[in-house]
Amino acid sequence: MKTTITGEYIKEMLAKDMREDARKLLEYRDITIRIGTIPNAEGSAEANIGNTKVLAGVKLGVGEPMPDKPNEGNLMASAELLPLAAESFDVGPPTPEAIELARVTDRGIRAAGVVDLSKLFIEKDKVWNVFIDVYVLNYDGNLFDASALAAQAALSSCRMPKYDAAAETVIREGDLGRLPLANMVVSSTFGIMSDKIILDPNANEELFIDSRLTISTDGNNIRAMQKGLGGSGFTPKQVDTMMDVTLERSKDLRSMIKKSIGE
Amino acid sequence: MSGSGEKPVLIVDGKRLDGRLPGDIRPSRIEANVLKNAAGSAYIEWGNNKIMAAVYGPSEALPKHTSNPERAVIKCRYQMAPFSSLEEHGRSGPNRRSIEISKVIKEVFENAIITENFPGSEINIYVEVLQGDGGTRAAGVTAAAVAVAASGIPMTDLPYGVSIGKIGDQIVIDLNKIEDNYSDADVPIVISPRTGRILLLQMDGDMTKDEINRGIRMAADAGKMISKMQSDALKKQYMEISEKYKNEAPSYTPQAQK
């Protein structure tokens, strides 16, 4: 809850380069990734960053291509801030926060070209639709990185169903290949408070940071960014530092995803 | 009941497709308090069903006009994840089916929770089906009961759910998705084990009066196992804590009341 006393002690600790959960400023909480938690989905993964718990499920279906890209499959990501994830999440239509989370997750995957959409063409006017659903089960800050990890791990472990053109049915079980992927994306989210940069803000810290920045990377280049909250923003020097940290941390995050899918 | 096309043979030599006898429920497990933020939560794997239940509250009932000055109001939402089925991607958001199931689950807990203890407040119960394979409302109630108990909200009993049905001329318990699709009847039941009263009963199909009576008896028999699974899940978390601190904790002697 946003109370003055919480804000004061978070700021006082930050002045001494300390955080309430004894982390360094540019340190992640413990991260775990488990794939295949929902066998009914073609791909699924649960990512935990500290107490933040996010589940991503991938389903494939047959649909029509976009008019401007008749030979490519489609990708759709959505996110739900389930009311069971936090006291402050309510039942109802998607909030702007949920839509932002879905769009930032979508943008990272799309910009990095994670899914090879050109291989999702079936026949004229028939392509594969890839649906990525991000389900937030427990909220303790930094949903962006958790969603990116869960979505990427779910895609990396996703089965590729077959389309039986004669029967016009989708075969989802049996001996299936993998969803064709061309890249891997991870993100790092930073908060700025009293002009200090912290990595992976938890729920308490998210209440008091001035500005937030999420940077998605494929390991070599920056593929997407999203600034969040109002606040005083960042200096170019701070953005540079955050990009450096993102590229550095992406090595660990990528190897965690690879490890989770047994590579 | 919604099956189409060729009806598969569901029972061969007295055994069901997954090898169960008519009175067997699927292997299940429950874990209590799996979500940090909720007042109480539970995760159940019941066969291929995977369901997360969580409870928030009691808190002030909002909007104000929903509150009851004599008791807590129970609010419930049951929902299936868009990726929960083996078939097509589902649509998120409420539909007629999920709204009805939310309502009947709510009514179970209006009965089980001692709502008089919390006038003017609301208790929110969320049931999220992450993977569905038939019998999700029964499994959802079973998990939600553990979640409510884990939250410390007082209940008169720990209700459990299970479905019975009819395949051909056999009465069976705990239908999975395929059985449900091609069965002759499907009857989800929620029972309060202490009193034996039925808190939820729905039916869809064709059964005789005797068959329904037999089915309810089967549900009550299976209930002993389900109830044990629920209470074990609740006990387990405390066992783990006491195991962890058994050497550190000073023995607690209650002070005499003045």
What does this structure look like?
The complex is a heterodimer of chains A (263) and B (258). By secondary structure, chain A is α+β, with helices and mostly antiparallel strands. Chain A is built from 5 helices and 14 strands. Chain A has helices at residues 4-15, 96-111, 143-156, 203-208, 236-260, and strands spanning 31-35, 43-49, 52-63, 74-81, 121-123, 126-138, 159-160, 162-164, 169-171, 177-178, 186-193, 196-199, 211-217, 222-228. In chain A, strands 1, 2, 3, 4, 5 and 6 form a 6-stranded mixed β-sheet that branches. Chain A has a 4-stranded antiparallel β-sheet with strand order 12-11-13-14, with helices on both faces. A two-stranded antiparallel sheet of chain A has the order 7-10. In chain A, helix 3 runs parallel beside helix 5 (236-260). The radius of gyration of chain A is 19 Å and the shape is elongated. The mean pLDDT of chain A is 94. Chain B has 258 residues and is an alpha+beta fold. Chain B has a single domain, classed as GHMP Kinase, N-terminal domain (Ribosomal Protein S5, domain 2). Chain B is 29% helix and 29% strand. Chain B has helices spanning 96-112, 136-151, 177-182, 209-244; strands at 11-12, 15-16, 28-32, 40-46, 49-60, 73-80, 121-131, 160-167, 170-173, 185-192, 197-201, 204-205. The interface between A and B is medium-sized, with 34 and 32 residues.
Detail the topology: elements first, then pairings.
The complex is a heterodimer of chains A (263) and B (258).
Chain A: H1 4-15, E1 31-35, E2 43-49, E3 52-63, E4 74-81, H2 96-111, E5 121-123, E6 126-138, H3 143-156, E7 159-160, E8 162-164, E9 169-171, E10 177-178, E11 186-193, E12 196-199, H4 203-208, E13 211-217, E14 222-228, H5 236-260
Parallel strand pairs in A: 4-6
Antiparallel strand pairs in A: 1-2, 2-3, 3-6, 5-6, 7-10, 8-9, 11-12, 11-13, 13-14
Helix pairs in contact in A: 2-3, 3-5
Chain B: E1 11-12, E2 15-16, E3 28-32, E4 40-46, E5 49-60, E6 73-80, H1 96-112, E7 121-131, H2 136-151, E8 160-167, E9 170-173, H3 177-182, E10 185-192, E11 197-201, E12 204-205, H4 209-244
Parallel strand pairs in B: 6-7
Antiparallel strand pairs in B: 1-2, 3-4, 4-5, 5-7, 8-9, 8-10, 10-11, 10-12
